[in-house]
Design goal:
A hairpin with a 5-residue loop joins strand 8 and strand 9. Strands 1, 2, 3, 4, 5, 6, 7, 8, 9, 10, 11, 12 and 13 form a 13-stranded mixed β-sheet that branches. Helix content is 29%, strand content 23%. It folds into two domains: 228 residues, Rossmann fold (3-Layer(aba) Sandwich); 85 residues. It is of the alpha/beta class and 334 residues long.
Length: 334
């Protein structure tokens, strides 16, 4: 890491110049409430499950809501892709990105769209579908778009609080001063924000709530594989988190880079090896599952790990979200 320190200094200077620029520029407004959910680090902060929580909050109040994502990992560079119109999922993971498609399939009634320029994507969405609360997925660094509420997710287990490329920080912890609230994801006793913060600090934990077979034939309880031999194949930013979440006996653990696109022969090799080790099933994350259309036929059944984010300070989060301006108007429209 010492060898990378000079590069981190250069990176810090570039981030500083960028932030000073946006400190002076008036962000663009879309005329509807905007809630940003972001992070300070690259990948694995529990941001996507929290976006789901925020979206469900508004939907439970009959308020139309849409998630705007950059769509990391998608193929092509279309400036706007409508992943879901709230009635039907319209795009595959290849076209819309794995996390947006996962959200669209998981949350009934949720509109999801992707585009590198979130302002232009937001304009297009609002022109097509009318007023919605917009939730920016990974929006903390996307400063050109105005937001009414800026929430930052911080992983309690993240030990590498150094700037890229020596660590995982996208910008200095001092940037938290821009945030309106922090969510400590993966909360454990003693976890604190990485810098002094005098605004709301919320806590959340993510837990496994079951397993769903990809061919749609079966859904199992959270303890279905307790102590049993399984294989685990994941292409996510923090693969160790998936393993730590399981109480199964993981006899084969295959990891790939974040947003990895699995192919049939690769999975066949993994399943064959896992079967030789006595595994009863091959487990994958929801993010990986959306790229396995129809459930690939293998020597082992494939199950998606179903997770849920629990907010330990739910009333405080509700007060923050209900305090976003203009919600009453949208509730009437919804």
């Amino acid at each position: 890491m010492k060898a990378l320190a000079p590069l981190s200094w250069i990176y810090r200077a570039a981030v500083s110049v960028r932030n000073r620029y946006y400190d002076r520029v008036e962000p663009k407004k879309l005329g509807v409430p905007v809630v940003s959910v972001g992070n300070l680090t690259v990948g694995g902060s529990g941001k996507t499950p929290f976006v789901e929580v925020v979206s469900r909050h508004f939907l439970s109040r009959k308020i139309p809501v849409a998630v705007l994502s950059r769509g990391y990992g998608r193929e092509g560079s279309a400036p706007f892709v409508l992943v879901s119109d709230g009635q039907k999922v319209l795009a595959s993971a290849r076209d819309g990105g794995d996390e947006p498609v996962e959200l669209a399939r998981k949350v009934e009634g949720l509109v999801v769209a992707v585009g590198a320029d979130r302002y232009q994507a937001g304009r297009t969405l609002l022109e097509r579908l009318g007023p919605h609360v917009l939730v920016l997925d990974d929006g903390f660094q996307h400063r050109r778009l105005y937001r009414d509420l800026d929430i930052v997710c911080f992983d309690c287990g993240d030990p590498k609080l150094r700037l890229l490329p020596a660590g995982r920080l996208r910008e200095p912890v001092a940037s938290l001063s821009r945030a309106d609230a922090i969510v400590l994801t993966g909360y454990r006793e003693g976890c604190r924000p990485p810098a002094r913060f005098d605004k709301p600090v919320l806590r959340s934990i993510t837990r496994v709530v079951g397993f769903s077979r990809l061919d749609g034939e079966e859904r199992l309880s959270a303890d279905a594989f307790r102590g049993k031999p399984v294989a685990l194949a994941v292409g996510i930013a923090r693969p160790e988190r998936a393993r730590e979440s399981l109480d199964a006996d993981v006899v084969l653990f295959e990891t790939r880079r974040d947003h990895h696109r699995w192919n049939a022969s690769e999975l066949e090799t993994i399943a064959a090896g896992a079967s030789d080790h006595g595994a009863q099933a091959l487990l994958v994350t929801g993010k990986d599952a959306v790229k396995l259309e129809g459930g690939t036929a293998l020597a082992l059944p494939i199950y998606r790990i179903d997770i849920e984010s629990e907010i330990l300070d739910a009333s405080a989060l509700g007060a923050l979200l209900d305090g976003v301006p203009s919600l009453t108007t949208l509730a009437v429209l919804g």
